[in-house]
Amino acid sequence: MRYDVVVAGGGVAGVAAAVGAARAGASACVIESGGSLGGTATQALVTPFMKWVSGGKPVVAGVFAVVLKRLVESGGADEREPAIFEPELLKVVLLEMCEEAGVDVLFNARVVGAEVEAGGLKAVLASTKRGALRVEGLSFVDATGDADLAALAGAPVAAGRESDGLVQPVTLMFKVAGIDFERFAEYLERHPEEAAPWVSVEHVRRAVGEGRPFSFAGLYRLVAETRAEGEFPEIPGIGYIAPLAAFPREGYAVFNNTRVCEVDPLDPRQLARATLEAYRQALAIVRFLKKRVPGFERCYLAQLGCRIGVRESRRIVGEYVLKLEDLVSCVEFPDAIARGCYAVDVHPLKPGEKGLWIPVPEGKSYTIPYRSLVPLKVDRLLAAGRCISAEHAALGAVRVMPTAMATGQAAGVAAALSAASGVPPRRLSAEEVRRELVKQGAML
Ligand SMILES: Cc1cc2nc3c(=O)[nH]c(=O)nc-3n(C[C@H](O)[C@H](O)[C@H](O)COP(=O)(O)OP(=O)(O)OC[C@H]3O[C@@H](n4cnc5c(N)ncnc54)[C@H](O)[C@@H]3O)c2cc1C
Predict the structure, then answer these.
(1) Rounded average pLDDT over 298-309
(2) Beta-strand runs (E) in 295-352
(3) Mean pLDDT of 113-134
(4) Structure confidence at residue 9 (pLDDT)
(5) Could you tell me the pTM of the whole model?
(6) What is the structure's pLDDT at 237?
């Protein structure tokens, strides 16, 4: 098999890369180890899309904007609150978009090997039911989230916090159905102090009345009381309930409430242990909801994420390492290929530690330079999504889905231009990449 652009990993970044490459005129494929596209968003049930609008203006568009539109059209999101989407429909939207762009998708195919010739990546080997599959390419995008391809090709990689290698905690998302949101909203109106400071009870009330999705966090007192009675699990840093995607019309919500610290997501055994721990946390939370929270009396666990959500693992070390300071001071890089406006958001790495939350002022955004997609040492390879070259803390911001799609589309476009011209990504003109991205509707 041979393509101009080979993308390893079919998460949101990988899909944006493949579609971006195809729109730039390349033949492209996505090699995905699972059986659906969307990665963390679909397999780990992560919704909503975090912040991409600053001061009322979007800072990410391109393929991401098409996904949003298609989600609304397919009933997978509500145009009044498009950030909160239904992961099952995202699977359909992404696969259809690949088909329409002429991208070949390979499922149940895991990239397990890399052939490097004269310093440049030449082919990948994927493990499939038919045995090893060799896929040649003129350029490659590592969108595995874990920088698998870069590591296999011998490019320098890094993991976790610079001081001790610890990564952000893993979280198993879960879906609870059978919720009476009217009763829940009435309870909140009586106890507005139970809502997190950033939650407007009035907004929740209106969303429930109009059947519109909303995000919620709170119930501090109920959690504290239940914990005092020994009936709420000890979860590091979790003293609240967070149905981040609540769908009142359908009567269900997806919870971002479990947390397991000090796990190496690349270690299969540790991952299984953490998953079991998170299952137990989820079941205990559902028991709490049923017993203590008005509106949840008849609720039930409808779905556990197919896999635990990994916020951070391995990343490439690139021509430029994006710094926390670059984001905080909203640096305008001359070779910017993507923008973001989500806060620096690092959850506590171990029990007793504090996390990091540094929001971007409204109306501002930061940029991501092309050089942070280009790994050192190995040619014909780019990275996208949550494995680009960034400091641990900076990754805490650029990992979110809209930004991951923006870096994905940029990596795909660069890979296509490199394949067409024979100029390796390291020497490619960022200006040329930017021009094609603008043509494709990206916001720079
Ligand atoms: C609990 C949690 C909550 C979050 N909350 C939000 C939120 O509310 N909003 C937001 O915008 N972001 C959120 N994020 C961040 C965001 O979901 C991820 O960072 C983003 O989805 C990463 O996308 P990606 O495509 O780079 O990687 P991934 O989603 O990890 O996709 C990588 C894909 O590659 C595949 N793959 C891996 N290795 C291989 C291989 N060797 N061969 C072939 N395929 C491979 C995987 O199966 C997967 O499909 C959250 C993350 C977590 C874990």
Answers:
(1) 98
(2) 300-304, 314-316, 336-340, 344-346
(3) 97
(4) 98
(5) 0.97
(6) 86
- What ligand 1 atom has the least distance to the C-alpha of 111? 42
> Cβ(346)–Cβ(393) under 8 Å?
yes
Label residue 439 exposed, middle or buried (CB < 10 Å: 0-12, 13-18, 19+): exposed
Helix (H, G, I), strand (E, B) or coil at 58: strand
Are 396 and 169 spatial neighbours (Cβ–Cβ below 8 Å)? no
Quick one: tokens of 392? 């641990």
User: Helix or strand or coil: residue 111?
Assistant: strand
Cα(236) to centroid of ligand 1, in Å?
Answer: 22
Determine the Cα–Cα distance for residues 16 and 19; give it in Å rounded to an integer: 5
Distance between CA atoms of residues 359 and 341, nearest Å: 8
Is 207 in contact with 214 (CB distance < 8 Å)?
Answer: yes
| Predicted confidence (pLDDT) at residue 158 exceeds the cutoff of 90 | yes
How many other CB atoms are there within 10 angstroms of residue 318's CB atom?
24
Element of type H or E holding 167: none
Instruction: Work out the pLDDT band at 365, boundaries 50, 70, 90.
Output: very high
Q: Tell me which residues have their CB closer than 6 angstroms to ligand 1.
A: 8-14, 31-34, 39-41, 44, 46, 48-50, 110-111, 143-146, 148, 171, 173, 244, 256, 309-311, 385-386, 399-401, 404
Question: Which domains does the chain carry?
Answer: 2-165+312-439 (3.50.50.60), 174-304 (no CATH)
Beta bridge partners, 142, equal 8, 383
Residue 193 burial (CB < 10 Å; 0-12/13-18/19+)? exposed
Q: Which two tokens stand for residue 438?
A: 């603008």
Q: Are 196 and 218 in contact (CB under 8 A)?
A: yes
What is the three-class DSSP state of 395?
helix
Q: Report d(CA 378, CA 153) in Å as an integer.
A: 7
Cα gap 125→441, rounded to integer Å: 33
295: its two tokens: 């509106």
Query: How many angstroms separate the alpha carbon of residue 363 from the centre of ligand 1?
Result: 27
Is residue 20 within 8 A of residue 413, CB to CB? The reply is yes
Q: Which of 331, 337, 342 is nearest to 366 (CA)?
A: 331
**Integer Cα distance of 17 and 411 in angstroms:** 6
To test the pocket of ligand 1, the residue of 59, 112, 144, 306 to mutate (highest count of ligand atoms within 8 Å of its CB) is 144
Q: Are 91 and 15 in contact (CB under 8 A)?
A: no
